[in-house]
Amino acid sequence: MQEIEEQKRYMKEVKKINEGITKKYYILTMGCQLNENDSEKLSGMLEEMGYSKVEEEKEADLVLLNTCCIRENAEDKLFGKLGELKRAKTENGIIIAIGGCMMQQDHMIEKIKKSYPFVDLIFGTHTLHKFPEDLYQVLNEKEKIKDVLDIDGEIYEGLPIKRDSKIKASVTIMNGCNNFCSYCIVPYVRGRERSRNPKDIMEEIVGLAKEGYKEITLLGQNVNSYLRSEKEGLRPKFEEYEGIHSFATLLRKVNEIKGIERIRFISPHPKDFTQDVIEAIRDGEKICKLIHLPLQSGSTNILKKMNRKYSKEQYLKLVENMKKIIPNLTLSTDIIVGFPGETEEDFEDTLDVVRKVKFEQVYMFLYSRRVGTPGDKMEDQIPEEVKHERFNRLKKLVEEQMEESNQKYVGTIQTVLVDGPSKNNKTLLSGRTDSNKVVIFEGPQNCIHQLVKIKIISEHMWYLRGELIEE
Ligand code: SAH
Ligand code: SF4
Ligand code: F3S
Questions:
Q1: Atom of ligand 3 nearest to the CA of 67
Q2: 194 lines ligand 2 (CB under 6 A)
């Protein structure tokens, strides 16, 4: 790809500028796993340009903030940070670069230009690959750069990447979203759905397996519409590769890759959870049986206003069908509390679904108005105190259920992928079950990064305690 070749040239130029000096960078990732994966790519480019990573921003010559705008509190985080950085900028002349989803919004760029004029570089989600060129301009011309595009960026292959973990890797399989849920900003800041070439995905995962990676998480805003836009003629088709033509066929092929032991994916949309995907999960012995199935609301009325395209009953039926077909299935979900127009009855419907499905984990969010989305323009916004009161009721139910679900593990034998020493007690090891529960146990160092069998002996809300079974 010509564009990437050009960026590689800029990487070499920046490296030359930095020759003989050890330049340091600090990167702060504020968003979801896709945002984290982007940070890994930015880190890869920075390392290539002669920068090395530091954990303290005080030590850095370059501070890179990778932003998120999914909720107001994600945006507040950036402004707090910029306030702190102002002094470092005037005292040490560090370079400050901001990228990510928030930079795709014009009103945010205006705010930064006005209130934080010391920021050197602003780039968006569609121009991430051009970071070397933008940084070169900042270093060389000493001018402020804004590089944000409002069109769907290409998916570029061949960028360097510096991954955070040695055993678990995220692989982005598609960018963008076509769903336009009425509360959500993502389609506006990430553009329309475009899939990555199956060949590139497979080659990346085969490469990761060779490097010793054991767990792969396939990423996308709506993974089960992988290759759909291409199939529907909205985007150019890829050459056929190993019979991969859908998300289900991709899952089956990844399952065959030698060396990979676990496969996860986020996020699927319930409306697109087709039978072929359910069967691929059942058949793939490496595919984790914890599935994230975002509910958002349990009320059919609210789901309609949210533009989710399924009803309470359809969601419950899907869960029932999945549980029937996939042995040992566990589920996690996302729920928004206090969407405009949510009545007490609507909220009760959400609690009802939570009681019925018994999720392994529930990620709960207070509805946050996003400029430019239909939800923001709806009239019957819910008062903050009502949102909080409902949120607390949901949280209480979820915690009760979690205790119950943890109890079910006690006495069972679980396969655990060992991450390393436990953070709180270095003499113990910590790992994760197929269902992503943390397990703490005593074991030899050579268990680290391996799959081991553990007997669960007790539960402690946020983790399980177990004993290693010698084989
Ligand atoms: N594409 C993914 C999720 C992306 S955002 C999916 O469809 O599941 C992650 C979660 O943030 C969403 O599932 C939703 O629960 C929450 N979220 C998105 N917009 C929000 C908003 N405006 N206010 C509160 N929560 C929101
Ligand atoms: Fe947002 Fe809905 Fe797309 Fe998920 S599916 S990213 S919630 S618009
Ligand atoms: Fe992710 Fe936040 Fe963007 S959730 S896609 S980083 S708006």
A1: 6
A2: no
